Amino acid sequence: TRILHFHSGNYRGRYGGPQHTLTVQHLAFTRGRASGTAIALPADAPAACSRGTGIDGGGGAILVESGALHVVDCAFSNNQAAQLGPDVAGGAVYATGSTDVTIVQSTFTGNSASNGGAVACLNSDLRLFNDSVRANVATGTGANTVDTAMCPATIHGGEVGSGLDGAQRLTANRRKIVHLSFSPKPDTKKG
């Protein structure tokens, strides 16, 4: 079960007034699990088309829709968003339509999702300060689209791809990253 779902209802502030803000600090988020609505594809869709779930499968620990999120001194470990899907992302944290996602002095270890194993933002503004990201995994396969005309395409670092970025996935309007440390995925072939 996902640990926290916050929906402000004001996508990127387009409906007047500020977005509501959720602040979490000095907390541990462990073993959150998100599942989503299955993607309906035509029976004749090419095998390369993305399978899995819709956007609601993102954010194993925290899913923020149309709201601001501030995370301070939190630990995210072993959280899991849906493992397949085109815009399914953020094993620990996923924000969509947010004008402010700020994460400070937090750690992300062992989280996984189709895209962005640790943190992901879609049409959101992201700022990361003094965070640590270790051993997170992006598990997605196939084209990152449900458009059957684009299914054979693979474009890394953009909207179409395959298991984008084990640490983070940023399809963001604005982003700022300061003192972010990454550690490689541990070698699972060694004893």
Helix content estimate: under 10%
- The structure class reads mainly beta
The CA-CA distance between the termini, in Å, is 32 Å
Shape: globular
Describe this structure as you would to a colleague.
The model is unreliable at 152-172 and 185-191 (pLDDT under 50). The protein is 0% helix and 35% strand. The strands form 3 sheets. Strands 1, 2, 4, 5, 7, 8, 11 and 14 form an 8-stranded parallel sheet that branches. The chain starts with a strand and ends in an 8-residue tail after the last strand. The chain has strands at 4-7, 21-25, 28-30, 62-65, 68-72, 75-77, 93-96, 101-104, 107-109, 112-113, 119-129, 132-134, 137-138, 168-178, 181-183. The protein has no helices and 15 strands. It is mainly β and 191 residues long. 47% of the residues are buried.
